[in-house]
Design goal:
single chain, alpha/beta, 52% helix, globular, binds nicotinamide-adenine-dinucleotide, binds D-Mannitol-1-phosphate, NAD, 6-PGluconate_DH-like_C_sf
Length: 384
């Protein structure tokens, strides 16, 4: 069995690549970073380490890598031959992989190939749907929605594993936490009874798992990163060592959890137990997970559908308290990390246009939302 995975980064190699290997796939990674491609091809294997298991070394075999920049025909060929196609490139890059993927799927269709599952393993609100939209909208390799439906199936996915890396000789080597969850939208698969990736869960009600992951876990994680950054803490562990930050983060997660209980059949007690488990996982000292990694790409994270504004709006819709979420969003707007392109863009925009216009532009909030003024007030309080 053959797999194609776009993005040989922390999650690509440290999570999806491992599960594909354990499930018997021969995986072709498609990436744009030549040193990673060369490293994988040197031995057709790669190493990864399990942080919370005494850095146990795992070797993942039966892999190769191709560059979509210098060898797109090889990428297209791999897509034509694949039994499954996955991605983990960050949703901001889905439009960049779309032309190569579209070219491959169109060629597969022209050759009369079989229908293939395509899944975007990204932290976002229904990332596979976003990928499908990017495929249809890409101008370089036109493909219609009808053609996509003829050659592919597009299940959404919830993806959970803390995957970091250590740089050795210029190559990022994945360092992962043992706990993981990969939840797949069963009814959208080519064959809803098949379970091609071992270790994954196949469910009919993905929404509740996806939103719990993004709106509770990633929500609390991002809040920790932004509060921590504001308070000059380097890592998530350091941030959660500060009792006030920890209390605020738990309050943020509970506001989000309360909204989840209105939308889905979760009890608040279940979600409290989930929050406790997540706080334990993210505050493991050995992770050395930097607040700048967890807070990265704030334009993406402050989007109305993403992990902070998404649950805050949901809480508002149900008439629930979202004041701690508003404070976390404000801290996101205060994230002035110079090494993060998106943070620099937001800071420049705020400097030129003010926080009000920034909140309108990046979070699509207007004075019609009660949340709008709460975020602005919280931001001004932070800056006072
Ligand atoms: N790291 C985690 O703990 C974690 C956990 C769950 C989900 N995720 C999600 O997984 C995705 C990837 O995160 P990551 O931490 O692995 O990031 P990463 O930066 O380590 O990996 C991204 C990879 O994508 C590659 N890439 C970028 N643009 C590309 C393009 N146009 N074509 C091909 N490859 C391209 C990069 O070179 C890199 O190797 C994100 O959506 C993230 O939200 C991450
Ligand atoms: O990957 P991002 O940038 O969407 O979010 C940063 C972290 O919250 C994220 O990578 C978590 O570590 C991961 O989602 C855990 O499963």
């Amino acid at each position: 069995m053959k797999a194609v995975h776009f993005g040989a980064g922390n999650i690509g190699r440290g999570f999806i690549g491992e599960l594909l290997f354990e499930s018997g796939f021969e995986t072709t990674f498609i990436d744009v970073v030549q040193p990673i491609i060369d490293y994988i091809n040197a031995s057709h294997s790669y190493e990864m380490y399990v942080i919370d298991n005494n850095y146990e070394k795992k070797v993942i075999k039966n892999v190769k890598a191709v560059s979509s920049i210098t060898d797109e025909p090889a990428a297209v060929e791999a897509i034509c031959e694949a039994d499954i196609i996955t991605t983990s490139v960050c949703v901001d890059n889905l439009d960049k992989i779309a032309p190569t993927l579209a070219k491959g799927l169109k060629e597969r269709l022209n050759r009369g190939g079989s229908k293939v599952n395509v899944m975007a393993c990204e932290n976002a609100f229904y990332a596979t749907d976003m990928l499908k939209k990017a495929l249809v909208e890409n101008k370089k390799a036109p493909i219609t929605e009808a053609e996509l439906d003829e050659i592919g199936a597009f299940p959404n996915v919830a993806v959970d594993r803390i995957a970091l890396c250590k740089v050795v000789d210029g190559v990022k080597i994945p360092q992962i936490q043992s706990t993981f969850e990969l939840v797949i939208e069963k009814d959208k698969m080519v064959d809803p009874t098949a379970q091609p990736i071992k270790g994954a869960e196949y469910v009919e009600n993905l929404g509740m798992y996806l939103e719990r992951k993004l709106y509770v876990f990633n929500c609390g994680h991002a809040a920790t990163a932004y509060f921590g950054y504001y308070n000059n803490r380097a890592t998530i562990f350091d941030a959660l060592e500060v009792p006030e930050i920890k209390a605020d983060v738990i309050a943020v997660m509970k506001e989000s959890a309360m909204a989840m209980t209105k939308k889905y059949p979760f009890t608040f007690e279940e979600l409290e137990a989930y929050i406790e488990k997540i706080i334990k996982r993210i505050s493991l000292e050995e992770l050395h997970d930097e607040v700048v990694r967890v807070g990265r790409s704030p334009i993406r994270k402050l989007n109305a559908k993403d992990r902070l504004v998404g649950p805050a709006l949901l809480a508002e819709q149900y008439g629930l308290d979202n004041s701690h979420l508003a404070k976390a969003i404000a801290a996101g707007y205060a994230f002035d990390c110079k090494d993060d392109e998106q943070a620099v863009e937001i800071q420049n925009y705020i400097a030129e246009n003010g926080i009000e216009k920034a909140v309108e532009k990046y979070s699509s909030l207007t004075a019609e939302h009660a949340l709008y003024q709460k975020v602005i007030d919280a931001y001004k309080a932070l800056k006072a």
